[in-house]
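Example record for the data management plan.
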Amino acid sequence: MTRFPGDLFDGLTSRAHPVVASIEAGHLAIEGDGIALSIPLGQIDVAPPVGAARGVVRLPGARELHSTNQAALAELAALARRNHPERWARHLESRAVYALAALAISVLVMFAGLRWGIPAAALLASRALPAGVDRSIGEQALALMEKVSLAPSKLPAARRQTLARELALECARQACPPHRLLFRNSPLFGANAMALPGGAIVVTDDLVKLSRDDEEVLAVIAHELGHVTYRHSLRLALQSLGAGAILVAVTGDLGNVSDFAAGLPSLLLRSGYSRDMEREADSYALHWLDARCIPRRRFADILQRLDNGPPDTVNLLSSHPGTTDRIHPFLVPGACA
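Corresponding structural encoding:
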């Protein structure tokens, strides 16, 4: 036990009270004439002596203990820091090198959270949500789009029926996720196709007109079926709307479903899917095309045709970033070639 003399100031008067202080069992005990205090070390703050000046120990209640015993004050300061992490943090913050290191670590942690943390949380949240939530978000998003950016298809009914029948035949031969194929006219979206939560796949008239055969349209739809399978549009909405939206999804509070639905069309059009999501959908499309012996080039051909279109046109490439790099696997002949 360390004991040292000092003067106690009670914070009420300027009078100094001679006392003896001792450090024992995580407390600072102070004894004097009519004085008996026991204060946890986590509640004190030590200013060691500088030069000939006395050191000051700040106590609760505006009281102070003054002493010239440098060894005891140094020991007390070390014990107080150990029992009060916030003081250790202030000590670190007072050093420029430590402050810069803390800033760099904070930036790295924030970057890692945005790059990997939120997407991972969105993936877990999307898996936890029941399918009914997907459908609700998708239906509301579709209703909003039909008011603002989608109009009834102008394609001949026979053309639409043929494409729908060919897709149904393909899905009867191999597994497809639950989906609804919808044709819409949209000057805003141009030549495009998109998968909404719940399985609605919207194919625009311009995309069908751009195609040179039905297999090209089916190849694009196969890609969108991949997005449906992996619930990409829901994951995109969750991670783009931030951690708060993910928390809503995880806790089951679905009061903000309308917010998801309202923001989803803009996210699909302007932000697009991530490269990881595109690779997943591409891999699905590759296996889907190979399973039915549809040449892989059908997907590459229609994307290359889109790539040669007017640069200011909103089309399938606009909402599917990195398309030029992604088409290379589709240029390699499949097993049925």
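Summary line stored alongside the record: Confidence is low (pLDDT under 50) at residues 311-315.
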